[in-house]
Specification:
Length: 420
């Protein structure tokens, strides 16, 4: 049962252009040279029909499904395609049983391609472990999400992970030009041309997503009417397919770049990553929470007002909503980025927690206990000397001020007026 068998049939003009232009062979496949250039191991395995269980991880439209379809056309094994979003345990058991029969009665291998494998529930992923390990079938999983966060480690350990990357600008251009000249599957019968500016724009704005580039090209071609040239203005008007959603992996990377830019006082970079996240549709409250954390963790005592600004930005989002909330968000990002930095509070609580977790629970000193009658108020009695820590850790120093911003005064105080 080869669910990619449509490739062997005549291409239907009703199919979207991106589907019609899907590569049919490794020679037609453009991109992922680190995996599929001549002489590379994965290419050799495919050409020799010796593929092993693998997970293809990468952004949308980088060729994961196309690669699976090429494998289906190359292999002598039975090829079954499943989609994790709708897959049930009963369906999977049926596939497993069929694969066992293929091996037992016909000595025929089965390759199971599971698209969006990250969407499988963990218990269904668990059911794959034994059959992958004992070779009942060969698994090819495809995911746009994080291998670490969305697929159980035992399954990952039984598969070879291949990372696919967004197509390069030159590769996008090559596919676009091929599409314009291919008269059987592409737009070659239209005799269309594309201006250099339009080609550069399309190859750049699609962000390595060849599907969105071809969809935009198809719409632009349809809108040209009797014109034979696709120009920049036409593409700018018709490119409506820039993806707003981002994968888990992308979101982790974007927020990481955002945080590190604020920490490094790189204001312009922090604003750029903020804009990327907002434009992708990321929850602004999630972003605001990260700014609050940064204000406390990385600015801290060097400029305590940063925490107030960050919390105010979070409240503003709840009060006014988007898109206007982008302005207080930007204000908070600028304030945090431009502030002097100190992570002394972050380190102080971590030091205290380390002591708490590695020592027994010392009793509260008698003079600090509630209603003990032994407590002397130091405000009224400034000369009173009390021990506030248990005797066993009396000399512990958790808070160590840093010589930065407002905290410089505390640094001087704690260091008897000595500078760093």
């Amino acid at each position: 049962m080869d669910l990619f068998s449509y490739q062997n049939n005549a291409v239907s003009i009703q199919q979207p252009l991106a589907e019609r232009m899907r590569p049919r062979t490794l020679d037609e496949y453009i991109g992922q040279e680190h995996l599929l250039a001549k002489g590379k191991v994965l290419r050799k395995l495919i050409e020799s029909d010796q593929v092993q269980s693998m997970i293809l991880q990468g952004p949308p439209a980088t060729g994961k499904t196309s690669l699976a379809s090429i494998i289906s056309a190359t292999t002598s094994a039975e090829f079954i395609k499943l989609n994790a979003v709708s897959l049930t345990i009963a369906e999977l058991r049926s596939v497993i049983e069929k694969a066992r029969e293929n091996l037992k009665y016909y000595q025929k291998r089965t390759i199971v391609f599971i698209d969006e494998i990250h969407a499988m529930k963990s218990n269904i992923q668990m059911s794959l472990l034994q059959v992958v390990e004992n070779g009942t079938f060969i698994l090819i999983g495809a995911t746009t999400e994080s291998i670490t966060h969305d697929i159980i480690p035992p399954l990952v350990s039984r598969c070879k992970v291949y990372n696919l990357y967004a197509l390069k600008t030159a590769e996008i251009k090559k596919i676009i030009i091929t599409t314009l000249t291919d008269s059987k599957r592409g737009l070659g019968n239209r005799n269309l041309e594309i201006t250099p500016e339009a080609l550069d724009y399309l190859a750049d704005v699609c962000n390595g997503d060849i599907r969105s580039a071809l969809n935009a090209l198809e719409y632009a071609a349809a809108s040209t009417g009797n014109e034979s040239t696709i120009d920049l203005e036409t593409l700018q008007q018709t490119f409506q397919l820039k993806l707003n959603g981002i994968s888990t992996t992308d979101s982790y990377d974007l927020i990481s770049a955002f945080i590190k830019s604020m920490r490094g006082s790189q204001t312009d970079a922090a604003l750029y990553w903020l804009a990327r996240m907002l434009d992708s549709g990321m929850d602004p409250l999630f972003i605001a929470r990260r700014i609050v954390i940064q204000a406390a963790e990385d600015v801290g005592m060097a400029n305590p007002q940063a925490l107030q600004i960050a919390v105010a930005a979070k409240q503003a989002i709840e009060f006014i909503g988007m898109p206007e909330a982008r302005i207080p968000l930007a204000e908070a990002v600028i304030f945090v980025s431009e502030s002097p930095k100190s992570n002394s509070a972050y380190k102080a609580i971590n030091r205290a927690l380390e002591v708490v977790r590695n020592t027994r629970a010392y009793p509260v000193p008698s003079h600090l206990k509630n209603s003990s009658g032994l407590y002397v108020n130091p405000i009224d009695n400034p000369k009173a000397r009390l021990d506030y820590l248990p005797p066993e850790i009396q000399n512990s120093k958790f808070y160590k001020p840093q010589n930065s911003g407002i905290e410089a005064k505390l640094f001087s105080k704690h260091n008897n007026g000595k500078s760093e």
